[in-house]
Amino acid sequence: MAQWGAIFSIIVALGGAALLASVHKIDEGHIGVYYRGGALLTTTSGPGFHLMLPFITTYKSVQTTLQTDEVKNVPCGTSGGVMIYFDRIEVVNYLIPSAVYDIVRNFTADYDKALIFNKVHHELNQFCSVHSLQEVYIGLFDQIDENLKLTLQEDLTSMAPGLIIQVFHWI
Question: Where does the record place the Band domain (predicted)?
Answer without folding.
Answer: 21-171
